[in-house]
Design goal:
This protein is about 70% helix and about 0% strand. By secondary structure, the chain is an all-alpha fold. The chain has a domain of about 90 residues.
């Protein structure tokens, strides 16, 4: 519950993509790997609290990037479709299948998912098109400007 108010008060990273990847990294490292290695509520509670505070960091940064890239008149449809794709059948189908003792399946699931999170985070951050997603495609309000709309610049004849 603390992550949202912290982001609201702070405003997040100036370069939103960094906040997105930092949030995912903390969630993968602490939230998934940390929970899988913890042995009992004394470890799980603080790990879950820190991981939960990282979630708004990644989600708010991601949403802000998308809102700047998608025209306002189609954002409702876009975000609805994006949310539908996030709810996959895999999570429901394979939950609890691995492991033989109580909780072991979830522990393996968290461990593997956390490691995969970190690998994906590192790979994605190394791709220039992803790293520079805030600067490469134009914002929706800038994409419709023509060169004639751009302000004229002049060096005043200095050379």
């Amino acid at each position: 519950m603390a992550g949202g108010p912290i982001i609201s008060a702070w405003g997040g990273f100036e370069k939103r993509v960094r906040g997105m990847f930092l949030g995912w990294g903390v969630s993968g490292l602490l939230g998934l790997i940390g929970l899988s290695l913890g042995r009992g509520p004394a470890a799980w509670l603080p790990i879950a609290a820190v991981s939960a505070m990282a979630f708004p960091l990644s989600q708010s940064a991601s949403n802000m990037i998308w809102q700047s890239k998608v025209a306002p008149d189609i954002q409702g449809r876009f975000f609805a479709a994006r949310r539908m794709n996030a709810d996959t059948w895999l999570a429901k189908t394979f939950a609890g299948i691995t492991g033989t003792g109580p909780g072991s399946g979830k522990a393996i699931q968290f461990l593997l998912a956390g490691m995969l999170f970190l690998v994906i985070d590192a790979i994605a951050l190394s791709i220039p098109a992803v790293h520079d997603v805030e600067t490469l495609p134009p914002d929706h309000d800038q994409a419709q400007k023509t060169p004639a709309d751009a302000p004229a610049t002049s060096d005043g004849g200095a050379g």
